[in-house]
Write a structure and sequence with these properties.
The chain contains seven helices and ten strands. It is α+β, with helices and mostly antiparallel strands. Strand 5 and strand 6 form a beta hairpin.
């Protein structure tokens, strides 16, 4: 009788060790049996917690692997700054993280360089198409929106992956100085000052303490360098920091190493 009771209990209770959990009514697996990790290889399927995990992985490529970049919008212009640490034998003449999209718009990235090159090329084509149609420079907000739309399209199609890069887009148009951030999800926001990359949390905290609405471009450049220095490993030099600015002349330009050196000396005083 004891043996029969034991057998009955074993077969009538939960599954035996090593056997699969039976599905619930409606075919749904028991809660906790399939975590978010089971969805990490799918780009177009939401996990039970409502996440698209490939987008989170793309953000990790930005925030854990990408060098810190930041932007500050002043009342008379915008400054972009980034770290460009590379191996000693790399020729810096051919390596730039700050680039112009049009004469009046510039961009910097954190994340995967090859992904950035694709987006930069698309942004330039978008700007040229706008100019051919309207014979006018594209507004910064429209370029940011168009670039973010390209990034969003790569989050909902099979056979592709999200871009592993975030962008800071700076421009000066009829609405004044503009600063936008575009992320791998396709989200984009206008900012007064922001940071992306490895040390973005500390950089944003520092910017929140130092920023004010009346800041001028020269002060913004100094603030950008002080912010970069907060989390910088090693010595900051004109060779491992890159800065781009745009002022009321509406001409975006990348500072020369000599100009960066002068600003570093001033910031050290």
């Amino acid at each position: 009788a004891g043996s029969s009771s034991s057998s009955s209990s074993s077969s009538g209770g939960g599954p035996r060790e090593g056997e699969a959990e039976p599905a619930r009514a409606g075919g749904e697996p028991k809660a906790g049996n399939m975590g978010d990790s089971a969805y990490s290889f799918s780009l177009t399927t939401f996990s039970p917690s409502g996440k698209l995990l490939q987008i989170e992985h793309a953000l990790n490529a930005v925030n854990k692997k990408g060098k810190t970049s930041l932007g500050i919008r002043a009342k008379d212009g915008v400054v972009l700054a980034t770290s460009r640490k590379v191996p000693a034998l790399v020729d810096l003449e051919g390596f730039h993280k700050v680039n112009s999209v049009t004469d009046s718009i510039g961009v910097v990235y954190s994340g995967l360089g090859p992904d950035y090159r694709v987006l930069l090329k698309r942004a330039r084509k978008h700007a040229q198409a706008y100019y051919r149609k309207f014979l006018d420079d594209i507004p910064t907000s429209q370029l940011a929106r168009g670039t973010a739309q390209v990034m969003q399209e790569y989050t909902q199609a099979g056979g592709v992956r999200p871009f592993g890069v975030s962008l800071l887009i700076a421009g000066y148009d009829d609405d004044g100085p503009q600063l936008y951030q575009a992320d791998p999800s396709g989200a984009f926001f206008g900012w007064k000052a922001t940071a992306i990359g490895q040390d973005f949390v500390n950089a944003k905290t520092f910017l929140e303490k130092r920023y004010n609405d009346d800041i001028e471009l020269e002060d913004a450049i100094h603030t950008a360098l002080l912010t970069m220095r907060e989390g910088f490993e090693g010595e900051m030099t004109e060779h491992n920091i890159e800065i781009g600015i745009i002022d009321s002349s509406r001409k975006f330009r990348v500072l020369t190493p000599a100009e960066v050196r002068d600003y570093l000396d001033e910031a050290a005083d």
